[in-house]
Write a structure and sequence with these properties.
The structure is a single chain. By secondary structure, the chain is an alpha/beta fold. Helices cover 36% and strands 17% of the residues. It has one domain: P-loop containing nucleotide triphosphate hydrolases (Rossmann fold, 3-Layer(aba) Sandwich), CATH 3.40.50.300. It is built from seven helices and eight strands. Helix 4 crosses helix 5.
Length: 214
């Protein structure tokens, strides 16, 4: 049985798009395909017009490194590294001076409101602070798209609201495209598009009502 069938999805630059559906509906599988962590067994995934399902592992790694940021529900931070070092980690593969990396990391930490916590390790941070470090790590490379798999699942409501507002701000001000897999009503209400999956099939899409700028 296929995890996904008959998916036809176009993601536009600047989207704040949620993939919704019950547990086991294929949300994470679809996110992994869009993030080129998995290859489709049939069909294709196009990024900027390029069919990435035909590329080599090295070429895929280069695209992930340059264009895609990831935020996971379990944060996926390296416990032995400080917040600063966790955010710096994706930059180590890029040709930058120490000073260039330092500037980018400090900017990312400031954007997510935890510039004073750079020397703390993950076990010294709250869940919300750890998720902010994860967001900073995702944005430090200035990716064109960020994939977030259930990013509010392990957060209390207040913290989840703050993290989502931060992501929404990055979307509006920096034009970063966000793709969520989630059934959190808060994410679904903020999204400008909601794509619903059921048993691996795309069953519906609804565009959110125009949100008024305040």
């Amino acid at each position: 049985m296929n995890a996904l069938t008959d998916i036809n999805l176009i993601v536009r630059t600047g989207d704040f798009l949620a993939i919704a559906g019950s547990s086991g509906s294929g949300k994470t599988t679809l996110l992994n395909l869009l993030g080129i962590l998995d290859r489709p067994t049939s069909g294709c995934v196009l990024i900027d017009g390029v069919d990435v399902s035909q590329l080599s592992s090295r070429e895929l790694a280069a695209i992930r490194s340059q264009k895609i940021g990831f935020v996971f529900q379990t944060f996926n931070l390296l416990p032995v590294l400080t917040a600063f070092e966790n955010v710096e980690y994706p930059l180590l593969l890029q040709h930058m001076t120490t000073e260039q990396r330092k500037t980018k990391v400090e900017d990312a930490l400031q954007r997510v409101g935890i510039e004073k916590l750079g020397k703390h390790r993950p076990d010294q941070l709250s869940g919300g602070q750890r998720q902010r470090v994860a967001v900073a790590r995702a944005i430090v490379k200035h990716p064109s798209v960020i994939l977030a798999d259930e990013p509010t699942a392990n957060l209390d409501k207040k913290t989840a609201t703050a993290v989502l507002e931060l992501m929404h701000q990055l979307n509006r001000e920096d034009g970063v495209t966000f793709l969520f897999s989630s059934h959190d009503p808060m994410i679904l209400s903020l999204a400008n598009r909601v794509v619903k999956l059921s048993d691996g099939r795309q069953v519906a899409e609804k565009a959110a009502k125009e949100r008024h700028a305040h």
